[in-house]
Design a protein that fits this description.
Blueprint lengths: L19 H26 L1 H12 L8 H27 L4 H24 L5 H15 L2 H13 L5 H8 L2 H15 L7 H20 L11 H8 L22 H11 L6 H5 L4 H27 L10 H7 L1 H21 L2 H22 L4 H31 L11 H26 L4 H36 L1
Helix pairs in contact: 1-4, 1-6, 1-8, 1-9, 2-3, 2-8, 2-13, 2-14, 3-5, 3-6, 3-18, 4-5, 4-6, 4-9, 6-18, 7-15, 7-17, 8-9, 8-14, 8-15, 13-14, 13-17, 13-18, 13-19, 15-16, 15-17, 16-17, 16-19, 17-18, 18-19
């Protein structure tokens, strides 16, 4: 069979196959674009937490005794809309053009974020306006996650080190939080509206880049999905098989032929209820409900907590509190990578998740108890908390979702990825909506009560994975005894 022409006119490898580095270029581009796009989603979510202190101090309707309640209600407006829309978004992403859907979601998210910033310049004080903008933002942002997971799954679904790759890739969440915190805090002194407008511009610009350059599936670049596995297994010297004559040349085809070819290759999209019944989906989804409740409580309330709790007897400014909060996300970056690496090494996703969840309990207790002693104590303990809290959250939303969306029960159907990831992340997002809302009310009774809520949530998250973790241990011991 004659090999197809290499993408973008690159040289052929010996024997007629394209060199492995040709495919590698596409992989790097996909990782970079999806990383930047989802980081920008999180950057545009961060401003509400940065401006909370300013709004509660002098911007109606968030002032007064019920101010924190309304700030919590504003968080839940976004997160509940996000969670409910996520299920439909995953269903849509399995059937739509991922590049166009992701790019459109980014541009729409930029508009919603800019609308919140405009409230400052237009002197808007109506709670209904803020809530409506947050609901709109939640709906359009829900398309982001299933799109990027499906794209990365299309390219890396057969990777032998999937946990490590996706653990590192999933640091976009923490990187986005860090970037959003820094951007929003840096311009806060010019007026809190700018804290929304700057991230809105960033996500809009990246949305245009995605629409222009993202390659959502290997077949769109004239590459077979199976060829990807050779590259990812680390055998860089092996040839990567491209689409042959029976599947058309990668270059010189007109658009109609390429679309027809792609349509014949892609399997049937999985149904919503069918995805829920897949082994492991429900336990991990409900585990993420409580794990994400904890993570998003920190996402939305950590700067406010730092601002209102003295460190070494000193209260930090709004700007300093926002910047200091990025330490939690820096810990989350390393936690996500470590969880992915560990789960690949021992071959046990549930065991890894349970371990990180278990260790996050003492980490939170120590941070609450000793974080106020000095700045060094606060930074070190906040980093440790972020490391253990974000580890399982990162692992479940990436490598676990990809595992479950390509398992043998559906014969590796990659078009189940968006639906499965949407179910898992959508269920988690319901918890993410609940955590900040409860914090807005519980914090008025004291922060010890908030941390107690977080510890109970982590304990429940562990309970949902105990059986899966036990099964993984039994399987490993059985395999070892046979060997």
């Amino acid at each position: 069979m004659e090999a197809a022409a290499p993408p973008h006119g690159g040289p052929r490898a010996a024997g007629g196959a394209a060199p492995a580095r040709g495919l590698g270029r596409h992989e790097y581009a996909v990782l970079a674009l999806t990383f930047a796009s989802y980081a920008s989603f999180h950057a545009s979510r961060k401003p509400p937490s940065i401006v909370k202190g300013v709004l509660s101090a002098d911007w109606a309707p968030f002032t007064g005794a019920r101010g924190t309640h309304r700030l919590g209600e504003l968080d839940v407006a976004f997160l509940s809309a996000y969670a409910l829309a996520m299920f439909a978004a995953g269903h849509l992403a399995d059937r739509a053009d991922l590049r166009r859907l992701l790019g459109a979601a980014m541009l729409a998210s930029a508009a919603a974020c800019a609308a919140l910033g405009a409230a400052y310049f237009l002197d808007v004080h109506a709670l209904a306006f803020f809530a409506a903008a947050q609901v709109a933002s939640g709906v359009v942002q829900s398309a982001g996650w299933p799109c990027v997971v499906a794209v990365v799954g299309n390219w890396f679904g057969h990777a032998s080190k999937r946990g490590t790759i996706m653990g590192a890739w999933n640091s976009h969440t923490s990187v986005g939080n860090i970037a959003g915190s820094v951007l929003a805090a840096a311009v806060l002194e010019f007026g809190w509206g700018w804290s929304f407008l700057v991230p809105a511009f960033v996500i809009a610009a990246l949305g245009v880049v995605v629409l222009m350059f993202l390659v959502a599936h290997p077949s769109e670049a004239g590459l077979e999905v199976q060829g990807m596995e050779v590259e990812m297994n680390g055998d860089g010297g092996e040839e990567v098989e491209l689409l042959g004559e029976d599947k058309k040349e990668a270059q010189g085809n007109d658009d109609d032929e390429l679309e027809l070819e792609m349509g014949s290759q892609l399997p049937r999209a999985i149904g919503f209820l069918e995805a829920w019944r897949l082994p492991g989906v429900a336990p991990f989804a409900f585990c993420l409900f409580f794990s994400k409740l904890v993570a998003y409580t920190f996402l939305y309330w950590l700067p406010f907590y730092i601002r209102n709790n003295a460190i070494a007897g000193q209260f930090l400014s709004h700007k300093a509190s926002g910047i200091l909060s990025i330490v939690f996300d820096i810990g989350g970056v390393l936690g996500g990578i470590s969880a992915g690496l560990l789960s690949d090494t021992i071959g046990a996703r549930a065991v890894t998740s349970v371990l990180f969840l278990f260790l996050s309990i003492p980490a939170l207790i120590v941070y609450r108890t000793y974080g106020s002693i000095s700045m060094h104590h606060n930074v070190a303990l906040m980093f440790l908390s972020g490391y253990f809290v974000n580890g399982p959250y990162s692992l479940i939303t990436t490598a676990v979702a990809t595992d479950l969306g390509t398992q043998d029960a559906i014969k590796g159907n990659s078009r189940a990825l968006a639906t499965v990831s949407a179910i898992i992340d959508g269920t988690g997002s319901v918890g993410a909506a609940l955590g900040p809302l409860l914090t807005g009310y519980i914090s008025t009774r004291g922060w010890n009560s908030v941390f107690f809520m977080l510890i109970v949530s982590i304990s429940l998250a562990i309970m949902f994975l105990i059986r899966l973790a036990k099964d993984e241990i039994v399987t490993k011991l059985s395999t070892r005894s046979q060997e």
